[in-house]
Amino acid sequence: MSDRVLRGTRLGSVSYESDRHTEFAPRLQAIYDCPDGHATTMPFAAEADVPARWECRVCGAPGLLRDGEQPEAKPTKPARTHWDMLLERRSVAELEEVLNERLTVLHDQQGRVKAAAKSAERDRKKSA
Ligand SMILES: [Zn+2]
Fold first, then answer.
1. Considering the entire predicted model, what is its pTM?
2. Which of 23, 34, 62, 88 has the maximum number of C-beta atoms within 10 A of its C-beta?
3. How confident is the model over 15-24, as pLDDT tens digits?
């Protein structure tokens, strides 16, 4: 029975190479401290560019490299508002013109509505 058992190892899980006589590339340990005080240690190749930030293994907050330079705050662009975008397309004078156009249209409509209401009122009084 036992000779029918297929023996094997999972592909890629086991290496039959030994570590003996193998020289590892030089490494360094980078330690990251998160705002909550957790320390995350990451090995890096000595010649690698060690990132200034690394996600904390415990809480996921961004940790800063211990003894590293503080990353410069990126100059943040002020958020572009709808008003800013509008001003990119039209000048204030043009906007004033558009506003007046729209107000005229609205006032005309309102005038027509009021006139219609008045004439309806007159018709009602006549018929009464
Ligand atoms: Zn943390």
1. 0.39
2. 34
3. 666 777 777 7
